[in-house]
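Page header: ASSEMBLY MODEL / four components / 292 residues total.
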Amino acid sequence: MYTIGQVADMFGLPVSTLRYYDKQGLFPELERTSGIRRFGDTELEALRVIECLKKAGMEIKDIRLFMEWCAEGPSTYPKRKAMFEERKAHMESEIANMNRALDMLKFKCWYYEQAIQDGNEDRVKALIPDDLPEEIKDTYDNAHTQ
Amino acid sequence: MYTIGQVADMFGLPVSTLRYYDKQGLFPELERTSGIRRFGDTELEALRVIECLKKAGMEIKDIRLFMEWCAEGPSTYPKRKAMFEERKAHMESEIANMNRALDMLKFKCWYYEQAIQDGNEDRVKALIPDDLPEEIKDTYDNAHTQ
DNA sequence: GTAATACCTAAACCTAACTTTAGGTCAAGG
DNA sequence: CCTTGACCTAAAGTTAGGTTTAGGTATTAC
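Prediction written out in full:
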């Protein structure tokens, strides 16, 4: 059994964050002795799950829901799977968006590299072809060379 | 010249957002006739830049800074490039993080798919090999099969 | 003439995930 | 005895990027 300060050190988290998680119901089994929180294996495990699911972009209320489902047993497997499928789809579309943004940023870096070499944007602006494929054209249009 | 309502319709943005952008200094050249905003080509162009840079995850204050640099001329090419290089590096590391999270989510989906088929987690837990390569092991450890 | 619109401002509100503050208990050390 | 440090609570503050509200002006429509 650990105090809140020990757990904070173990996980590199501020004490206030652990109290906040507790308040959000993420440690439903947490015990106390004379008002003081006592963190056991259950809570350390919960914290590992929290850190993991936060990386997946899950909100605290969803993490709490997931934990409740875990406590309910095998009947909630489908719900849990559905939650992860939804997260997966969301994450995939975000990654796709970010890759598009990254293409634009690469273009911007290249663009200013040329502009720095030339001392102006005339040549680099003329360098951009008119007949680009659609998906790349979007990048140029978006970046539209301001 | 357009009114705020017309621009809102053109860009599919709420009027309040355009007022907010104005307040943040994103339309430094904006003119008014008897108190009413008049959006011209400069402002429409600015809005296109804003939409583009927002996709790259840039904050409003950075977008404003970038616009100021653009107005200052070629001497700011290096600053502008540095800003995009920094954004690019940030974006690349975020994408890498998200791909790691995505691997974890895929694992979770597979895990619950098996658990649903079996009606319990016994087989799927036993299925996870002990001797995984490090980078994949992290995924399993993170997902640690709760 | 009055009602509906479109515009304006300042200021309050919103969300999520924390953090900070103010005020209080309790045990050990000097 | 009294100060330091670890714990506690409730409530307010923080951040970004808006949105909403309350109150006011001005033009057009009936």
